[in-house]
Amino acid sequence: MDHNHTTVTEFILIGLSETAELKVLIFMVFLMIYLVTVIGNLCIILAYIFSLNLNTPMYFLLTNFSFLEICYISVNIPKMLSNLLLEHKTISFYGCALQVYSFGVCGGTECYLLAAMAYDRYNAICHPLLYSIIMNRMVCIRLVIGSYLVGSSNSLLHTVLTFTLPFCGSNKINHIFCDIPPILTLACADTRINQIVIFVTSNCVVVGSFLLIMVSYIYIILAVVRVHSTSGRKKAFSTCTSHFTVVTIFYGSVMFMYLKPESSSAIVQDKLVAVMYTVIAPLLNPFIYSLRNRDVKMALIKIYHQLTTSKKHLV
Q1: Which of 60, 182, 302, 308 could join 175 in a cystine, given CB atoms 3.0 to 4.6 angstroms apart?
Q2: What are the b/e assignments for 220-242, b being 16+ CB within 10 Å?
Q3: Strand ranges (DSSP E) for the chain?
Q4: How many helices (H) and strands (E) would you count in the chain?
Q5: How far is it, in rounded angstroms, from Cα 69 to Cα 67?
Q6: Calpha distance 290→270 (Å, rounded)
């Protein structure tokens, strides 16, 4: 290594905007989004815990998905909020590595958890008589654990490959959080191996899980088309629309971000897309699932009535 260079010990996150007035507005918006997202996903978790009629494989997976969404948004948003208030928007070298790893775990896990949820819907619609046997408790737990194993192993590989590179020049990350593509531009070494690994594993994790979801939905559509009654078809499709909406939002933005050709002229666009899948998607998910799902709405209303009744008794 050239001794004229100083080894990087911390990074500076540029963020969305340098304008003071916009910083305040962005802080308020992001803080509100974060609070609503955490509360919304907690409501789904509480609905599952306190409602016996929601103790099914579908809601078990949904509850784990909601927990993952809380973790997902908590990896980046708190640091983004603090940087909007502080003059020096720095993150330590190891803090950045931890953020990259945690973000990768959540992102990779979400891909395969969404695939597990699609598999659940496939069994519910295509094999209704065997559904409770196929999707038993142990199978659901294994699907969740398997999703976390894929996410954590994939993220560990990327984190190690990225942060063993020498960083001896600029330490300014032109992004809203520590993400691998903008970090690689700061490395003073050849990053072609990293780029190849990102491309290969992105195809395995993102495209692979997406194909599993699409195969599940092809079988679901073929099964629903065979249903003779209109009400039966409508009921079958209604159980899948919430999940498919979430899949579209998440995979659309992730594929655009990580599977498109590299372009230095699309930095602002990349930041906005990153906001879409790291901030907006976790915000929309509890609303998509609760507003389109009668069982979740009824469970939340029941919990609300129980809380208000208990308060009256205490008074």
Answers
A1: 182
A2: beebbeeeeeeeeeeebeebbeb
A3: 10-13, 90-92, 172-173
A4: 12, 3
A5: 5
A6: 30
Q: Give the span between the Cα atoms of 212 and 230, in whole angstroms.
A: 27
Q: How far is CA 11 from the centre of its chain?
A: 24
- Which residue, among 178, 156, 151, 152, has the nearest Cα to 93 in the 3D structure? 178
Contact 33, 109 (CB under 8 A): no
Which residues, including other chains, have CB under 8 Å from residue 76's CB and lie 6 or more apart?
99, 103, 176, 177, 278, 279
Residue type, 92: S
- Return the structure tokens found at 192: 């072609």
Residue 123's contacts (CB-CB under 8 Å, 6 or more residues apart) are: 130, 131, 134, 135
Instruction: Please count the other Cβ atoms lying within 10 Å of the Cβ belonging to residue 19.
Output: 10
Tens digits of residue pLDDT in 177-198: 888 888 988 888 888 888 888 8
Contacts of 20 (CB under 8 A, 6+ apart): none
Where do we find the tokens 């142990």?
Answer: 138
pTM of the model: 0.86
Which domains, from first to last, does the chain contain?
Answer: 10-314 (1.20.1070.10)
User: What is the helix, strand, coil percentage profile of the chain, to 5?
Assistant: 80, 5, 20
pLDDT tens for each residue of 233-246? 776 677 677 788 88
109 conformational bin, left if phi > 0, alpha if psi -120 to 50, beta if neither: alpha
Say if CB 177 and CB 79 are below 8 A apart: yes
